[in-house]
Amino acid sequence: MQAAIEINELTKDYCLGFWRKRPRRALDGLTLTIEEGEVFGFLGPNGAGKTTTLKLLMGLIFPTSGGARILGRQIEDVSMHHDVGYLPEQPYFYDYLTARELLDYFARFFRLSAEERRRRIGSLLDLVGLSSAADVQLRRYSKGMLQRIGVAQAILHQPRVVFLDEPMSGLDPVGRREVRDIILDLKRQGRTIFFSTHILPDAEMLCDRVAVLVGGKLQGVGSPEQIVSIEVESLEVLFELPAGSALPPALEAAATQTGARYRIQVPEAQLYDALEGLRTARARIISVSQLKPTLEDFFLRLVGGEQRRHAVEISGGGS
Amino acid sequence: MKQSGRKRNIWVAALGIPLLLAAAFPLQRRIDARVRTVQQEKDELMLRSGRVLKKLSLGYDSLLANIYWTRAVQYYGGKRRDHDPNFELLAPLLEVTTTLDPHLLVACKFGAIFLAEPPPKGAGRPDLAVNLIRRAMVNNPEDWRLWADLGFIYYWDMKDYKKAAEVYLEGSRRPGAHDWMKVMAAKIAEEGGSRGTSRFLWEQVYLSTQDRDIRRNAFEHLQSLRAEEDAERLEELAARFHRRFGRFPPSARELVEAGILPGVPLDPAGYPYVLTPDGKARLNPSSPITSDILKPVLPH
Amino acid sequence: MIWVVAWNTFREAVRDRVLYNLIFFALLMIAATVLVGQISIGIEHLVIVNLGLTAISVFGLVMAIFIGVGLVYKEIDKRTLYALLARPLRRRQFLVGKYAGLLLTLAVNTALMTLGLAVALFYVSRTFVRSDLSILVAVYFILLKLALVTALALLFSCFSTPMLSTVFTLGLYLAGIFSTDIRSFGEVTESPALGAATKSLYYLLPNFNNFNAIAAAAYGRQIPLVLVAQNTAYAAIYITLVLLAAAAIFSNRNLK
To answer: Residue B11: which residues within 8 A CB-CB, separation 6 or more?
Structure first.
């Protein structure tokens, strides 16, 4: 069976500098195959080349070398867009049109009767929760609303393959849940979804497979579990320190603090040393639990950021 | 290979554009020809007022003056080429030019000559020429050359010798005026129009400018004057022949045979003169020289 | 598909209140008819036609350039193009659609202005004569000119900012108007090289003077049908040429 998306050594160089002397490789030989019906997550830090890949696939920019096929047709073949939907990053639409008019305009590029158009637009607006604002000009829309209409226009023509660039951005938790549901629904309909995101828990939950892109290079492809199993097992220790007591210096770097409570994450091999340090400091151990490795951990480790974790809710790991 | 879809656009453009341009060239020529028959007058008609144009030109008046000057020259040349004796727009074009740039003296001289010249060589309106110069004089009061141009109009085109002498005299007092101005003033005051004076003045016109049209015109006039002189001389000799032989010579060759002339005289263009039965000398009809006095006549 | 884009472009222009310029035109014509009544009889017709046609030409030109230079640039800059190109729409179809949309706007605008001119003329002359048909021909020529200017603006819009594109388009327009003079300059100078250069330039540049029949219309002179055909062909040639270039450039452009 033909794959939904076949990417083959896709490469994109940008020539910087006035004399085009210094090429910056935004995407380096990406090779990927995505089957029909898959929900595929495309992960990576900012500037990794995710948006570049999507723009290449949609024919907005042209590859320096390599190619790709969607549903068996070359990406240069614009007729393939009949079966492809696309939500751009930071979508922006004609602000003098209303939501309904925009969908109607886009719908006219497909061979639909007026009746069919009206029907679909109506149901889509319901789906994304914009029915009440359907006749308001888009210039008055908030970012979240624009994001929703963006999703709507991407699936308007019931495409077999849907590309979503950061579909959750700008949405509040309710909105994100709705989009998640839409994606799951599309999956149920047998459509192929390819989306890029920063929100790793979403990717973990929704995706059949993910790919991780860093610095334009593919770092790994596989199901979320496969990816994170690369991660080293570690344990999380929650504790409190008595007043006047200081953190053992060895643990200072790894600890995060919320109020009186501290949290450290240590690899299994180092657990007893850490506990010993805490005993010396007369800490009160609250819990020791095994950390289910997350995509985020894998991610951060991969990116190599020894970034201090900002104090977030302790429930941050796993989901 | 759909990749070539993009490249194809480039090829189509690269080939199509030169082809289309090549088609446009002859079309443009046809349009030019057609437009000339429709637009008898160009839209200069719209803005005849030099003052208005000067305001509209937003400070670029000297550039606009150059443009209008070029148009005036083209206009004149075009009319001559088409043998069209209607020089209606010449005065407005020159008026606009000199209003936009009052120091563009070549335009004044051009107007002085060609507005005054009778058709088919000019507009035949010496009064307009006088106006043009007088207006220019307001802005260039010390320029003796304008006085020379004005004097010339009075002398040659209007045959107003009194006025001409006055103007030459007045002009001779301007700084830098050449000495001949004073001499001419006196000569004209004394004897009015004479061939010698005319010849001298036309020579001055020729020497005073680099403009092609003006020079050519002056040259033609000098040739014409020369021819008239020759004709006079020839007629004298024909009269001598008549006194000797009792009849007028049928052609100049007879004069040569009679020993009165060393050779058959040719006009400045190289064509032999023609003698009429009553002893008058005329220009050869093939000769390009024109003269009011010597109307060409066929040799018999 | 082209028509879908075109219609949307037209709708955008209308919603951008572009057609409000008609109000100014109307005011102008009203003022003119009122003032002209004070001048001597006989040339009211002339003045109204001259003024009206010139206004149509100038307003149209301004519109063609100012909207034209943003046709493609705005869509790229605002990124509205991204979602649009996700449709099964070829880039050149997009270009032609935008072009047709602006042309439609200009045509509607011009038609309404011509109507206004006709009203003013009727008010002043109380009757229409056969020679007034040449006014319609002059308007058609103006439309041809606007079509070409729009194409040029569109071309520049494909790769440069509105500010620069305006300069380029206006520059080309002026060069086209003065192309005859440029050629004359070359002929007046004594240099044969310069003369040849200016002559080639004359033939290369689109000669916008061809489309100027305002004087003829004002004097009620008949404009030969052959000229109408020739001008149409000339405009068609240049427009095609420009659009071909625009398509070549745009279809190879990487969108930011």
So the answer is: none
User: Is the CB of residue A92 less than 8 Å away from at least one CB of chain C?
Assistant: yes
Q: What is the pLDDT of residue A310?
A: 26
Tens of pLDDT, residue by residue over C145-173, are 999 999 999 999 999 999 999 999 999 99
Please tell me which chains touch C, using 3 or more CB pairs under 8 Å as the contact test: A, B
Residues 86-115 of C with CB under 8 A from A: 86-90
Average pLDDT in the A106-111 region? 89
Rg from Cα positions in chain A: 23
Facing residue for B38 by CB, picked from C221, C237, C245: C221
A292 sits in the region (left: phi over 0; alpha: psi -120 to 50; else beta) called beta
Domain boundaries, chain A: 5-222, 234-316
The alpha-carbon gap from A307 to the nearest alpha carbon of chain B, in Å, equals 44
Does CATH place domain A5-222 in 3.40.50.300?
yes
Check residue A194 and give its pLDDT: 92
- Distances in Å between the Cα of A90 and the Cα atoms of A84, A148, B11, C225, C238 are 19, 11, 35, 54, 39
DSSP C37-88: TTS-TTSHHHHHHHHHHHHHHHHHHHHHHHHHTTTTHHHHHTTHHHHHHTSS
Chain B hits for A77, CB-CB cut-off 8 Å, are 2
Cα gap A283→A285, rounded to integer Å: 6
Judged against a pLDDT cut of 60, whether residue B59 lies above it is answered with yes
- Where are the domains positioned within chain C? 2-250
Task: List all chains that touch chain B, counting a touch as 3 or more CB pairs closer than 8 Å.
Answer: A, C
**B89-95 average pLDDT score:** 87
Fold that domain A234-316 belongs to in CATH: Alpha-Beta Plaits (3.30.70)
* CA nearest to B211, candidates B73, B67, B87: B73
Radius of gyration of chain C (CA): 20
User: Burial, B97: exposed, middle or buried (Cβ in 10 Å; 0-12, 13-18, 19+)?
Assistant: buried
Whether the Cβ atoms of residue A219 and residue A299 lie closer than 8 Å to each other? no
Question: Which letter does DSSP use for residue A232 in this model?
Answer: P
Using 50, 70 and 90 to split pLDDT, how confident is the model at A223?
confident
CB distance A279 to A314 below 8 Å: no
Mark out chain C residues that contact chain B at CB-CB < 8 A.
50, 92, 178, 181, 184-185, 187-188, 203-204, 207, 209-210, 212-216, 221, 223-224, 226-227, 230-231, 233-234, 237-238, 240-241, 244-245, 247-248, 251-252
Helix count and strand count (H, E) for chain A: 10, 14
**Whether A226 contacts chain B with CB within 8 A:** no
pLDDT digits (tens, 9 = 90+) for B175-195: 888 888 888 888 888 887 888
Contact B2 A62 (CB under 8 A): no
Does the global pTM surpass 0.80?
A: no
Collapsing DSSP states into helix, strand and coil, what is residue A22?
strand
pLDDT tens track for B2-58: 456 778 888 888 888 888 888 888 888 888 877 766 555 544 455 566 676 776 676
Minimal CA–CA distance to C68: which of C99, C91, C96?
C99
Summarize pLDDT for A123-159 with one digit per residue, the tens: 998 888 888 888 888 888 888 888 889 989 999 999 9
pLDDT value, residue B41: 53
Cα separation values, B27 from A50, B34, C237, Å = 53, 10, 10
